[in-house]
Amino acid sequence: MILVLAAIIAVFLAGTVCGIFAMLVIGIHAEEHRTGSTSTAGSASRRLLRSETCDDLPARNKAGR
To answer: Would you say which domain of life the source belongs to (predicted)?
Structure first.
């Protein structure tokens, strides 16, 4: 019985920690969107996240002229 209660409490605490972390990440993301691209760190982060390697680029079709 004690193990069952300990397991229930552990699951509850793990869910609480994950929920708090998710809300923190969502809040930071919303704040970045609200402020725009005025910060240097924000623009550097966006450049890094949007960078594409040659493997990521789709195949380009030549214009049929």
So the answer is: Bacteria
Any domain includes 25: yes
Please give the residue range of the domain that contains residue 16: 2-37
Q: In total, how many domains does the chain have?
A: 1
Mean pLDDT by 10 residues, the chain (65 residues): 95 95 87 66 66 61 67
Written as one string, the DSSP assignment of 3-65 is HHHHHHHHHHHHHHHHHHHHHHHHHHHHHHHHH-S-SHHHHHHHHHHH---TTTSPPPPPP--
CB–CB of 21/15 below 8 Å? Answer: no
